[in-house]
Amino acid sequence: MTIKCCFDKVDHYNKYSVGGGVFLQCSRVATRDGFCFQHHPDAVAKRKEEQQERRRRRNRREAFLARCRAAELAAKFPGA
Ligand SMILES: [Zn+2]
């Protein structure tokens, strides 16, 4: 008998089931500690970290572009 990933039964129930519906149900086979490879707490934490890093990088890029635009405007309209 195969064990299914128990992702939909853990804390995500509260996070994603607004209005009573369970939106995230995982039907993958559990490979580690009752979770599939994608929903193991370690994997989830790693993904979250990567997401935050991407966000940080994007914020830096946007700040840089904003400075570029400001410098461009200042060059175009001196004294404005
Ligand atoms: Zn899963």
Describe the protein's architecture and organization:
- This protein is an all-alpha fold.
- The chain has one domain.
- It is 51% helix and 0% strand.
- The chain has two helices and no strands.
- It has helices spanning 12-16, 41-76.
- The longest helix is centred in the last third of the chain and has 36 residues, at 41-76.
- The chain is rod-shaped, with a radius of gyration of 22 Å.
- The model has no long low-confidence stretch (mean pLDDT 83).
- The protein binds zinc ion.
Topology (elements, then pairings):
Blueprint: H1 12-16, H2 41-76
The structure holds zinc ion (ZN).
Residues 5, 7, 26, 28, 35-36, 38-39 line the site of zinc ion.
Notable traits:
binds zinc ion; 80 residues; mainly alpha; 2 helices
Brief rundown of the structure:
The protein has two helices and no strands. It is mainly alpha-helical and 80 residues long.
Total number of distinct structural domains:
1
Helical region count? 2
Number of strands: 0
Radius of gyration: 22 Å
Percentage of residues in helical conformation: 40-55%
Q: Which geometry do the CA atoms define?
A: rod-shaped
